[in-house]
Amino acid sequence: MSLDIQHDKEGQQFTALLEKEDIGELAYALPDAETIDFQHTYIEEEHRNKGYADKLIKHGIDYAVSKGLQVRASCPAVAKYLERNPL
Predict the structure, then answer these.
(1) Minimal CA–CA distance to 74: which of 23, 24, 36, 33?
(2) I need a surface site. Which of 23, 57, 63, 67 has the fewest CB within 10 A?
(3) Which ranges constitute the DSSP H helices of 1-87?
(4) pTM, whole model, 2 decimals?
């Protein structure tokens, strides 16, 4: 099963889809033109502990880096990811 991640710029979130089923999201805010603040990560309970949150977070961070944005991690899961995978 492959994970598809879609970006909803208007809704300010990345959505994780597994076989076209929405299983989670990574929500963010743009406090200023140079910063992205990842605020919330959620994966449906039955899909947890399978690495999907890390894939979702990596996708969001890769997006931020590609846009030259400073990354802020209000979300504890994103902060832990960044501790394990520094920019």
Answers:
(1) 36
(2) 67
(3) 52-66, 76-84
(4) 0.94
